[in-house]
Amino acid sequence: MMDKIGFIYEKPTLIKIGDKKMLMCRKGMKLKIIKDCFDEHYLHELTNHYREGLEEKSLNTGDVVEVIGCWKNLYGSYINCTFNNEKFDISPKNLSFK
Predict the structure, then answer these.
(1) How many CB atoms lie within 10 A of CB 27?
(2) What is the pLDDT of residues 31-68, one digit of tens each?
(3) Every domain of the chain and the residues it spans
(4) CA distances (Å), 8 to each of 12, 40, 41, in order?
(5) What is the CATH number of domain 13-97?
(6) pLDDT given at position 1
(7) Rounded Cα distance, 14 and 44, in Å
(8) Which residues partner with 52 through β-bridges?
(9) Residue 72 region, left (φ>0) first, then alpha (ψ -120 to 50), else beta?
(10) pTM for the whole thing?
């Protein structure tokens, strides 16, 4: 269970993913994108702090990401992961166990 806000948990953490299953999220595990989505940090910047040159960060259905850790803030829980050597913060509802 995640207790601290804004802290990335690299230890195994229980989290609910897109297919409504509970998953013990571990660093290094592979998860599949089940719905086209954007990086949550990118969406925050786009909607609250828009500026010229903001680069779109999106993932497509079927992409496989590698988990770095899990974290939460006042808006929800997120999975920090990498895809093609780029970091993303993805909502668990967009992920499924590979």
Answers:
(1) 17
(2) 999 999 999 989 988 899 888 888 899 999 999 999 99
(3) 13-97
(4) 11, 15, 14
(5) 2.30.30.40
(6) 63
(7) 25
(8) none
(9) beta
(10) 0.86
